[in-house]
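INFO batch 0412 | record 1 of 1 | parsing
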Amino acid sequence: MPREFNRGTRVADLVQREVAQIIQRELEDPRVDLITINEVKVTRDLAYADIYFTVLPEENAENSQQVLNGASSFLRKQLSKALKIRTTPRLRFHYDPSVDRGARLSKVIDAAVSNDKLRSRSGQ
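INFO prediction complete | emitting tokens
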């Protein structure tokens, strides 16, 4: 029976959990207050971790990405204390627009449904 999770997946889950806690508790920068870590992808050799995040309001995305990438060495150092692995991956942060896109699509769908209900009531 094959394993369900490989080492990269387990490390990615650990990195996601720990980085979210470090940002919340130890990174004292008001520009990164409302950040959510959506996904972490770790390279096969565990050298890099690509971290995808969302931020509110959406207008702060580029600024937050710069702040997080600037603080990546601090975050990596804190992460190395929490993880019990030989090498800690280098952190690269990327803004994930999929959540915002999903919210916009949901609004469009809701508007279309309500428009259809109005048309069916009016008999058109």
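INFO post-check: The longest strand covers residues 35-42.
INFO record closed
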